[in-house]
Amino acid sequence: MNPRWDWTRSRSWKSGPFIQSLGKDHTVILSSHILSEVQAVCQTILILSKGRLVACDTPENLEKRFAGTTTVELTAEATAEEVRAILAPLDHILEVTTREEPRGRCGVVLETDGEDALCRKFSSRSAGRRRPCCG
Fold first, then answer.
1. CB neighbours of 120 closer than 8 A, spacing ≥ 6?
2. Looking at the whole model, is its pTM more than 0.85?
3. Considering just the CA atoms, what is the radius of gyration of the chain in Å?
């Protein structure tokens, strides 16, 4: 690990309260590629790309706006109908595509809003079945 990186990072975290106090009465410009650092000290974020302003909003709104989707592909030892029943109560699923496969299996493609806990929720919902759901 680069020693300068550690020094810069720890110094900027310590200056967070100072930057926040300055921001009450002044406009403070902070340049960083570390999103967690920017979120901790900024109320409004401007994103520049190649010298042009491409976004301006609160950290929360920008995170929602730029959060990517995730595609999950799996084979379930269940019918398409059973898979849809398991998935129905789960949040964060934008689209479900199923295809019947041999031996009572079902291919599943889930498009999610990027929520990482979704796979754990799917596994726990399917755990009560007589046969494993994911193969």
1. none
2. no
3. 22
